[in-house]
Design brief:
By secondary structure, the chain is α+β, with helices and mostly antiparallel strands. Helices cover about 20% and strands about 30% of the residues. The protein has two domains: about 70 residues, no CATH class; about 130 residues, OB fold (Dihydrolipoamide Acetyltransferase, E2P). A hairpin with a 5-residue loop joins strand 4 and strand 5.
């Protein structure tokens, strides 16, 4: 009870400082709200997730306390494989990252990001082989992606479809994408720019 009181007093004191700065944002907090309810509210307002803590826990400098739990929200979407950036180091001989696309409202194929995580060594090699079979000399996108993407890129005909897990789609790109696997039940023409529930509100 002593630690609970101290934690809440410190939180209240921080909130009362009325800090206003582009790099400082004191997040609101709630007590006695169950996890599922908080997650639903987080989804509704298009937030990244929740951080929950035991108010009786203490700060442990230099360590991640088990009294704090971070639960980020993830969403699934489809993307078209439009090429790859060759791998290096441990990923040499495979793909370093996959170049992803999707069709916008006009039907044009647009770049929605690259994904390099979630791939096994075997997938990196196999996907490179498949994309090389579909290789073409020019970008398949209606608008040329940023130079950071096109540098060392190997372009492919937009034929293969994959599943990607991400935090959100914002600013024309997937945030924190992770490769989840190929999709053989969808054609590339069916893949649209991601629209998550929060985008429609």
């Amino acid at each position: 009870m002593v630690w609970s009181s101290i934690a809440l007093e410190r939180r209240e004191a921080l909130a009362n400082l009325s800090l206003e700065h582009p790099r400082i944002n004191v997040r609101p907090h709630w007590l006695n709200v169950d996890g599922p309810t908080m997650l639903e509210a987080t989804k509704k307002y298009h937030l990244e997730g929740i951080v929950a803590n035991n108010i009786s826990s203490i700060y442990q400098p230099g360590r991640r306390s088990r009294g704090w739990l971070k639960t980020p929200l993830r969403a699934n979407c489809e993307a078209v494989l439009c090429g790859f950036v060759p791998g290096s180091g441990g990923a040499a001989g495979g793909v370093g990252s996959l170049i992803l696309g999707a069709h916008d409202d006009s039907g044009s194929l647009v770049h929605v990001g690259n994904v390099g995580t979630g791939l096994t060594d075997r997938q990196r090699r196999e996907l490179r082989a498949k994309l090389v079979e579909l290789e073409q000399s020019i970008s398949p996108f209606a608008i040329e992606p940023p130079r950071a993407v096109t540098r060392n890129a190997s372009w492919s005909r937009p034929f293969l479809v994959c599943d990607v897990e991400c935090r959100e789609f914002t600013g024309g790109s997937l945030r924190h994408p992770s490769f989840r696997g190929r999709r053989d039940d969808k054609t590339a023409d069916e893949v649209k720019v991601p629209l998550f529930d929060s985008d429609a509100t």
